[in-house]
Amino acid sequence: MSRGETPLNAAADRNDTSRAGPRVPLRDHVATSIRRYLGDLNGCDNGDLYEIALRELEIPLFAEVLEHCDGNQSRAASMLGIHRATLRKKLREYGLA
């Protein structure tokens, strides 16, 4: 793993052979999206950016990992590094269950 690379990015780089050329770390995509979102606020401060960002990240993360694990919540929770009960709670909270 290179300096500054997270295990998630390293795993994605090792497993993704569908694209040639340099790979952009996930955090760069997130930073770009946050920058765009902040620009769209036009100076307004809604005060709950952390909750919004966490929700916007968790929903597609859980959905994609569940799909990758063929709907197996135990495997998905293990892959995410969280307890299965936590995953189930989040899935219900986000309307994904």
Automatic annotation (TrEMBL):
UniProt keyword DNA-binding, yes or no: yes
Domain DNA binding HTH: 54-94
Full protein name: Putative Fis-like DNA-binding protein
Molecular function GO labels: sequence-specific DNA binding
Keyword hit for DNA-binding: yes
Region (Disordered): 1-25
Alphabetic keyword roster: DNA-binding
Family, per entry: Belongs to the transcriptional regulatory Fis family.
Database matches in InterPro entries: Fis_DNA-bd, Homeodomain-like_sf, HTH_Fis, Trans_regulatory_Fis
Gene Ontology biological process terms in this record: regulation of DNA-templated transcription
Organism, scientific name: Lysobacter spongiicola DSM 21749
